[in-house]
Design goal:
The chain is mainly alpha-helical and 152 residues long. Helix content is 63%, strand content 11%. The chain has 7 helices and 3 strands. Helix 2 (37-48) packs across helix 3. The chain is globular, with a radius of gyration of 18 Å.
């Protein structure tokens, strides 16, 4: 039986810790807007394409619909978006931004720039890192749990 690698040598921990650092950086800015990080991501999906279904939002974020529904309900309660049944398919719930939800887009525009600024890293390095992380995610999604037994 092999011994687990030290935590600092594991890719999964490096990614987790980096994600937590990004969320801590975003938190004060999102707090001022009255948003959580997951709510911000859900809004971002709608800023890309308004009128998506709950399922489409969940798929875009890599989440279950049952996780997205409470986020959407809280954003609806705060006036950022509205839900409506799809007239073509009553089983589908479409989510649309309200004017307030559209207005938040302009207020959130500087969040990504803040991460770049606080990181002190060159934009080319951050772009390359993002590409490598995306490639890792796609490779893992395609292999669904396959691997060689090494810690990740």
């Amino acid at each position: 039986m092999s011994v687990p690698w030290p935590l600092d040598d594991q890719l999964c921990f490096a990614l987790y810790a980096a994600n937590m650092a990004v969320q801590r950086t975003y938190k004060p800015m999102l707090d001022q807007l009255g948003l959580t990080y997951p709510q911000y991501l859900a809004l971002h999906v709608l800023w890309e394409e308004d009128g998506r279904t709950i399922g489409a939002i969940a798929q875009r974020l890599g989440l279950e619909s049952s996780t997205v529904t409470p986020l959407v309900k809280r954003l609806e309660a705060s006036g950022q978006l509205m839900r409506e049944r799809d007239p073509q398919d009553e089983r589908q719930v479409r989510v649309r931004l309200t004017p307030a939800g559209h207005a938040l887009r302009d207020q959130c525009g500087c969040l990504g720039e803040e991460i770049i600024s606080r990181s002190g890293m060159a934009m080319d390095d951050l772009t390359a890192l993002r590409g490598e992380v995306r490639a890792l995610r796609l490779a893992l999604e395609q292999r669904e749990g396959g691997g060689d037994g090494k810690a990740a």
